[in-house]
Amino acid sequence: MRDLPPLNALRAFVFTARHLSATKAAAELSVTLGAVSHQLRALEEFLDVSLFVRGHRQLTLTDAGERYFRDVSAAFESIRESTVALTNPGHKDVLRVRAYTTFSLRWLIPRLSSFCIDNRSQELVLSTGMDPVDFSRDKLDFAIRLGLGHWPGTVAERLIPNVLVPVCSPALLTRGPAVQKPQDLAHHVLLQSTWSERRDDWSQWLREQSVEMQEDYSFLYFESSALSYQAAIEGQGFAMAQLALVEEDLAAGRLVCPIRHYLDKGEFTYYLVYPENKRLTPQMKRFRDWLLAECDVFNNKSSAIAGLAVEQTAR
Questions:
Q1: Do 94 and 125 touch, CB atoms closer than 8 A?
Q2: Tens-digit pLDDT profile for residues 263-284
Q3: Is residue 183 within 8 Å of residue 213, measured between CB atoms?
Q4: Are 191 and 232 in contact (CB under 8 A)?
Q5: What is the largest CA-CA distance in the chain?
Q6: Is a pLDDT exceeding 60 seen at residue 10?
Q7: Could you tell me if 103 and 245 are in contact, meaning their C-beta atoms sit under 8 angstroms apart?
Q8: CA–CA separation, 52 vs 67, rounded Å?
Q9: How many helical (H) and strand (E) elements, i.e. helices and strands, does the chain have?
Q10: What is the pLDDT of residues 24-78, one digit of tens each?
Q11: What is the pLDDT of residue 281?
Q12: For residue 203, what is the enclosing H or E element?
């Protein structure tokens, strides 16, 4: 026990390292700034290691401090979980995740049952929204975001490819003008999401096919991609779909890809995002590991999905 530092000093260190601010740590611990500073100095003297680099009104963790924060915060979380389990056996840990509506409906939710079955004591709250995520304001553990993977102050882990392809109902092809090349889409209604991250999908795809969008193109606009996909299933036009989100419709023949041209947006895709200064709790790690494993399974079969889309069209 002589090798253990004082508990109050450890708490002051964890809170300060989490915020990289002794002032915020003091406020959260309901003690004075002087008390936190005293505890941090006492801990560094006990360890004989510098845990922080102290700049002008700024704190950063040393390499040793990073390692110590990761281990100590995990230990505190383990103590918390054991205490809750002992004092409140019916309690479930709450994991809060935010994703997009279309991604949630068409990719995440169909797979969630496997996570819930293996983690029955875990309570998960899934919210949806397209607004930027602010982890300092929003009470979230994870967010699933579409972008280039560069969000300041966060860790972003790539999930699935963002491959665009025009899709439509098989019935549309039997009653409408023939579609064999990209230029033929000018004779059909194009279904378009108004969300800022998706509103240029059609123009980008056409540009990749060396087709200039004309003013007389006919568009039907929707608030979300989920609505445009449903409109495509109902035969109202062509949707520029993210291939990963229409896999079931392609497999069932509700949608087909009459044109064999795909646009892989590369690094502009879906990411699992969480604060870089927040160490993963055991429940967060379980969800992250499960999600990345699901993505690996999907990514391994994504080429087969693309082939199926073409095969369905040829029938």
A1: yes
A2: 999 999 999 999 887 778 888 8
A3: no
A4: yes
A5: 82
A6: yes
A7: yes
A8: 12
A9: 11, 12
A10: 889 989 999 999 999 999 999 999 999 999 887 788 899 999 889 888 887 887 7
A11: 83
A12: helix 201-208
pTM of whole model > 0.85? no
User: Domains, the chain, ranges and CATH?
Assistant: 7-87 (1.10.10.10), 93-161+268-302 (3.40.190.10), 163-263+305-314 (3.40.190.10)
pLDDT of residue 55: 81
**What is the C-alpha radius of gyration for the chain, rounded to an integer number of angstroms?**
25
The residues near 14 (Cβ < 8 Å, ≥ 6 apart) are: 69, 72, 73, 76
Residue 3 has a CB neighbour count (10 Å cut-off) of 5
Question: How many angstroms separate the CA atoms of 125 and 265, rounded?
Answer: 30
Q: How far apart are CA 307 and CA 22, in angstroms?
A: 56
Burial code of 268-299, b = ≥16 C-beta within 10 A, e = fewer? ebbbbbbbebebbbebbebbbebbeebbeebe
d(CA 294, CA 53): 39
